[in-house]
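Suppose a classmate hands you a notebook page containing two proteins, each written out with its sequence and a corresponding row of structure tokens. How would you begin to make sense of it? This section walks through that situation. The first entry is reproduced here exactly as it would appear on such a page.
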Amino acid sequence: MADAQNTPVRRAKPEFNTADLEVGQRSSVILPDSGDTRPEDIILPVDLNALNKVYMDDLAFNEQAIKIVIHPSRERNAPNVFDCWVNGRGAEVFMNGKWQTLGYLPVGIPVITKRKYVEVLASSKIENINTEVIDTTTDKLPINKVHRTNSATCTFQVIDDRDPRGVEWLTRLYATAN
């Protein structure tokens, strides 16, 4: 009894699975009869002093180590690895006490990599497009409505993320429709 009181059970933080997250979806688009289909871009000035601090904080956040395991795909000839590059540099994995550049992340094996490479995996999505043609049966032209559906190309489980902002960051990445 004394041993149980002196050494209480410590439970590890629960793992975070991206398969449980909802992938962000883009809204449907109704194509105009003529003209440009793209919205106009608006350029706003930015305070550079505030931007530098935020930018440096983001860079430090993206260099943090995270332990993940990529789930195997259900497709017939599923890949054993996922190619992963950021600014021309291949994915870095912590092995044998040092960071090694592999250029890919293995499937089904727990690996420690940097957050920026996990962001590439989380942002990787496939967009399926289906066009619905609504016939007006009058003299007007038919209406073309484009439906877009996003799905994740890679699901993985975060085994260890020591930053408390990690879950919110990953949830936001998945919810964003690219």
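The notebook's second entry, a different protein, reads as follows.
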Amino acid sequence: MVVNEVSKTTLSGNLGNLGKNLFVLLISLILVLSFCELVLRIYNPLGFRIKGNKLILPINKKETIHHEHGLGKLDQVVIHQRNSLGFRGPEPPADFAKDLTIITVGGSTTECFDLAEDKTWPHDLGVQLKRDFTHLWLNNAGLSGNSTFGHYILMQDYLVKLQPKVALFLVGINDVGLQSERDFDERIHELNFRSLERFLASAAVHSELATAALNLYRFYFPKSVMINNQNDPQETDLRKLAPFEVSKEAQAAIIKDHQDHYVGPYRQRLEKLLAICREHNIIPVLLTQPVLYGKSVDPTTGVNLGHKFVAKDMDGATGWQVLELYNDVTRQVGRDQGVLVIDLAREMPKDSRYYYDLMHYTNAGADKMADLIAGQLTPFLARKFPQYYKGPAAPHAAP
């Protein structure tokens, strides 16, 4: 009997100690998380661009990028800067409404993260346009990895307030294989427990710690995978690409899958972008997406990229046909809505001296991009904004 009483007393004491320990652990965890939250609010070294489902642009940020290994296509040291708007380029003019203001929008092929400030195609384009236009200001709002989902957020959160006169959209590559929105344009105010990602996204609206957790989750569990890691760019040696050839039957199945599931939603997102531009008196210009691969031989290396592995289940020939489905949508939407389309996908040479991997441009490639864009954009702007034009008589530009 005494033994039973002692056992009960011991058990009660152990439970009491366990409760105290759990309470201390809980308090300690709350204190640690609160401390991390406070530190991240004061200084966030992670540099994430998405807070929940809202873009957070890094303003007045300067980074030094070292390209110590590779094929020598990239400068060894590159300074990457963001201005007070969070974009690449000069500060906005004092009287913004009176200038001819242009913003370039796109993913990594617009941002040109690994090129110096004065060697990106938006910078080169601005230099060329300034020869023919007065009071011209151009900024690069490209964000690596952004698709038309992210472009719409950028429009909503930043550009409709800034109201540039013209927005250039280089689109297509980051929309390949994307079907539906992830409620990017919703602003979540209540916790959502339908999935871990949705919970973190809803909590991230209010918490820097949840923001960090969400972005780490999206980094380690991405919804789509590109062959080129845009956060760790590497110059591609085309001679070392694995031989790969897709059968005609497999190619037809891949094409049909994109036609059936992804191309239609992409068209809807593109039309939505044009609608928000026109609603806020911003003139849109569409640029189709060029890449190096296709059913062709690279003139610089002699490599037949049509029969090389370029992406999951795709050789170069198939990958190009898939991308052209999206470029065709861009062309058609432009025709249907009377929007200027600059068809870089067809005009940019498929030559590896212009690319350091399968889609991103070298300094020479960025300069070539700027030449091609300026050739069609200059007469278009001269017709739309004759008050700024100082060049020779502009030829007719359509639309």
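A careful reader of the second entry would note: The chain has two domains: 1-43, 64-181+226-388.
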